[in-house]
Write a structure and sequence with these properties.
D-Maltodextrin-Binding Protein, domain 2, Fructose-1,6-Bisphosphatase, Chain A, domain 1, 8 helices, globular, seven-stranded mixed sheet, about 30% strand, alpha+beta
């Protein structure tokens, strides 16, 4: 499938720019609603979603979209989707509310149940990550605009683990004891995947619940950089477009 990565980068940055405007507007950034599951929803979530969805529909009208803010699509409708966009317009809403800058825009292309392309943009950090599963190439465009090829770090003996700044569990600590962990870093949102992809961390284990849109873009980038994302319930590669969009536990390895 012919997907224009440059266009996807522009869409992610455009959405990030809208998030940034709201983030630095003290009145707008403090407006927080709560969904039925008690998770927070901000104007930044809905604005970013509108930018991304409208752009994807305009340029790829034939490809359906599953977004966190448009997740009411029934399984009976989407079960036959071979290709679709999986979008988290603002991953790390809690980090947005905490104002620590560790939140991202996530756009992934899913083909036959697996992510084949991922874009993650951190608007406050000015970092853009790209993973292309077809070419097995992953890149970071840093805050200076420089494009850097990234790969997992599979040379280290002592491993660095990265975990959630907001969520953690005893199960995660227990699993990490199996590895020679020399350091554990806490980071918000899908930036944990990005740290593994660029070799700044080696292990990310998540036991607590996430949703498909939280992980797809990050998985695409990690895999394009040479890493793996494993479903801990069956030991297989993490897959998507399941009937239940709630993720089980998974392990990200960069070695």
């Amino acid at each position: 499938m012919n997907i224009d990565i440059e266009l996807l980068k522009k869409i992610a940055v455009s959405a990030g720019n809208e998030i940034e405007k709201i983030y630095f507007d003290k009145t707008l950034s403090q407006e927080v609603d709560y969904k039925s599951d008690n998770s927070p929803l901000t104007l930044a979530d809905t604005t970013s979603n509108r930018v991304i969805v409208s752009s994807l529909k305009k340029h790829y009208p034939e490809i359906p979209i599953l977004s966190e803010e448009g997740k009411s699509i029934s399984f009976s409708e989407r079960k036959n989707w071979k290709t679709f966009w999986l979008v988290d317009p603002l991953d790390g809403t809690k980090e947005f509310i905490k104002r620590n800058g560790e939140f991202t825009v996530n756009i992934a292309l899913i083909e036959n149940g697996f992510p084949t392309m991922g874009i993650i943009y951190a608007p406050i950090l000015k970092k853009l990550y790209i993973g292309d599963g077809h070419t097995k190439s992953a890149f970071l465009i840093d805050e200076t605009g420089k494009e850097i090829s990234i790969k997992i770090n599979n040379k280290s003996i002592k491993r660095i683990a990265v975990g959630s700044r907001t969520h953690s569990s005893d199960e995660e600590a227990t699993l990490l004891k199996k590895y020679a962990i020399s350091e554990t870093i806490s980071v918000g949102s899908s930036l944990k995947f990005c740290m593994v992809a660029e070799g700044k961390a080696d292990i990310y284990y998540r036991h607590g619940p996430t949703m498909e849109w939280d992980t797809a873009a990050g998985q695409a980038i990690v895999e394009a950089a040479g890493g793996t994302v494993t479903n801990m319930e069956n030991g297989k590669r993490f897959n998507y477009n399941r009937e239940n969009l709630l993720n089980g536990s998974f392990l990200v390895l960069g070695f």
